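hey so u asked for the seq, here:
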Amino acid sequence: MAKKKSAKSKTPKLWRMILKGSVIQYLITGIIVFYADYLTFFVFYNHFQWSVAVAQAPAYVSGIVVNFLLERLWVFKNQTKKDPVQKETLRYVVILVVNYVITVVILRALKTQGISPLWGKYIAAFFFTFWNYIVFRFWVFKGEDKKKRRKHR
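ran it, structure tokens below
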């Protein structure tokens, strides 16, 4: 006699995450963070005429603060209950450094191709939408390992 699959096993994991809301919350957070970063960059790059790398620094800081708070307290809150904030913060800082370098490289490369860094920010944001979700979900805010949770029950 064949076993019946439960409804949960028929639904792909990504679709379940979307339905639970973490992907939707992540996308909303991304929009908020993007515009906190973008508006700061716009002011320093356009109005103060700072270089791309220098204007990106305060923009990045504004995005960092908004992003960490929203990701930890709203998007991945169920995963972060057991993980110490210091551990998550260290992982987050590592990703920030990597992301800053990638952002500056993308903006400079696009600028050499005649694309304004103001437009390049949108292109970089598209890339980071996917990259950051994977990194935040499975490394920065991953929470306690399922095997460890089962042992403690």
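The longest helix spans residues 85-112. The helical segments are 7-10, 13-20, 22-47, 52-75, 85-112, 117-140, 146-151.
lmk if thats what u needed
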